[in-house]
Structure formats: structure tokens, C-alpha cells
Amino acid sequence: MLYGDLFRDKVILITGGTGFLGNKLVQRILPYNPKSIRLFSRDEVKHFHTQTKFNNHPQLRHLIGDVRDYSRLRKALKGVDIVIHAAALKRIDIIEYNVEEAIQTNVLGTLNVAKACWDENVKKAVFVSTDKACSPVNTYGACKFIGERIFTESNYSKGSADTIFLSVRYGNVLDSTGSVIPSFIHSILHQEEITLTDERMTRFLITPNQAVDLIFNSIIHSRGGEIFIPKLNSFKIVDLITVLTKYYHKEIKTKVIGIRPGEKIHEVLINETESRRTHQLENFYVVRSDIDKYQQGTHFQHLESAPLINSTELNSKDFLISEEKLFEALMENKILESIGPYHGY
Questions:
Q1: Region 321-325 average pLDDT
Q2: Which residues of the chain form beta strands (DSSP E)?
């Protein structure tokens, strides 16, 4: 199925739709001529900026609301075909000191989205998760882990609704709001000391287009209850600092400040328990539900020809690319050009 067939004449709702990912999704979906894209967000200023960015596009609908408010969600989802649930509180360090608020939005809000989807008989609902949900060590990751479980379990508690619930899981998107690259570049351009929590730290590398492609493919291929995970490279944070300082021809001091609350040295996309039910496809992995009563039946029959993963976990320390490859990836995706001047590498 082509993406055009997926979205043409459809009504799509994106929670957190005025954020970085929501804007990227809008850019990619609009050319396929959807009936409308509803952007559901509590921030009216971001609504205004998004409205301006897309020149008051007639197919965009701006809905102010909070996922904590079930009745507002129910109203917003009337007539919707596809839901992409991207709304969340995301700042790991801040969430560690605001656990109750994280639960209200990231857990109870996700329950509201799931319930509203089956009550309005939405066709497919995608939960946008994170690598931090895999073997979580912080509140954000724990909330996202539960969010994945909510969307998996919703396939079995939805009653007569036809909704197919699924999840996608990946790391921080390059150039996204709050990501490390804009922060490092700001420090470099202002000749400020760069703070690094640990020199051993590694992270997965995913571009905005890869994130959007994963969401699109998950909608196409899902039967219900799966977690879709992209095949990604990773990089050392110290290599990123080296690439950026070379790029801007700056000599900047780096200060190691130690691990922050809830932070990992390495990220894991698939853990040992999940690997036993994870299939490899060309560009992504599919983790089957472990509560699916149809595992021995026909529900995941389409995955039978796809081999199981050949490792016990996907850890960011095992997929590292060189400084040169990292630089090429940043340039190819216009990450550096979009943020600052080019001075050569």
C-alpha cells in the first residue's frame, strides 16, 4: 500500500500535534490529500505558530485540548480514521521531580486516548513511545512502558470496536525540540562550556523522516498489539561534540558533570525478553504482543516468514558509527544547515 492510499480522504488526529513531530507529520501527510488533519494540543501559542507555518492550510484543524480531559478527546475524535498519539511530558530530569504530573499526562492521558479511540471506533491508533520505555530506569521511561502496555492490552479489551492499537519505539529525533544538538550548538556559537554527563554515553541516531516513515509503515503493517522499532545506527556523544566543534571551527571546553537523575549511559531499543518474539523486516523490527492469545493461531501469520532477531538486545553501544559517518548523516539530513552557518569540516 502506498502512503497516498493510507491517508487520501482520511481524517487524521495527532495529539501533541503542534510539537516537532506533529509538524513533521503534517508536512508529510498533506501532499497525500487527507480529508483533514486535526492537531490536538493544549498550547494555543504553538497552535498559532503552526497555523502560520502552514499558511492557514484549509485541511488543518486546530483543536485546543488536553489528553487528561476525556470528554474533550471524545469530541475531538468523532469521525476520525487514524490517531497518532504523540502528546507527552518528555523532559526526563524535570519529570523526576514531577512524577504525579507525568502520570496524569503520560499514563492516564494515554488511557483516555485509548478509551476514546474505541468509543469512537477509530480504525488505527498509534502510540509514539521511546527507547527509554525498554527496561526503564526513569519516570518518563516507566510511563511510556505502561503506555505501550495500554495500547497493546487495548486490543483485547475494546469489545466490539474495530480499532487496531499499536506502538512505535525509537530514540530522540535529530534536531527535535529539547534535543542535544541545538543545545550543543548554542554553547559552541556563544563560546560557552559544554556540559557532558558521562564520556561513555551513546545514543541512537534517528532522523525526522525515519521517525515519520516508521509511523506510516506501522499503520500499514499492524494487525494489533505490536511494537514497531526502526533499524538504527548509534553514536558517541563525545564524537558529536567533536564533529560540531570541527564544523564551527571552535575550541570549546567540555565539563563532565555526572549522570543526571534517571539518565542511562546507553539506550536499549529491544531487551532480552522481547528479543524472543521480535521479527526482522527490511527496515524495522516488529515485537509481537506477549499477551496475544492468537500467537499460535493466525493473528501474526504474516510474520512467519520474517526471521526472529539474532541477538539478545539492541543496545546503543553496539551500533556505533564513526565521526565521519555521523557528520555525513547530519549534513545529509540538513541538521547543521538548518541550525547554523557552514564553515567546513
A1: 95
A2: 11-15, 36-41, 60-64, 82-85, 124-128, 164-168, 194-196, 202-205, 227-230, 233-236, 254-256, 268-270, 278-280, 284-287, 314-315
Q: What is the pLDDT of residues 228-260, one digit of tens each?
A: 999 999 999 999 999 999 998 888 899 999 988
Which grid cell sits at 25?
507529520
Task: Find residue 61's DSSP bridge partners.
Answer: 38
Q: Name which residue leads in pLDDT, 253 or 74.
A: 74
171 burial via Cβ count (<10 Å: 0-12, 13-18, 19+): buried
Burial bucket for residue 216 (CB in 10 Å: 0-12, 13-18, 19+) = buried
Residue 29, sorted as left (phi over 0), alpha (psi -120 to 50) or beta, turns out to be alpha
| Catalytic site positions | 132
* Residue 306 burial class via C-beta count within 10 angstroms: exposed 0-12, middle 13-18, buried 19 and up: middle
Q: How many CB atoms lie within 10 A of CB 192?
A: 12
List pLDDT tens digits, range 82-101.
999 999 999 998 999 999 99
List of domains in the chain: 3-171+208-232+268-315 (3.40.50.720)
Alpha-carbon Rg for the chain, nearest whole angstrom, is 20
3-state secondary structure of 250: coil
Distances (CA, A) of 77 to 43, 69, 149: 18, 12, 22
Q: Is 236 helix (H, G, I), strand (E, B) or coil?
A: strand
Q: How far is CA 119 from CA 71, 160, 267, 302, in A?
A: 11, 10, 36, 28
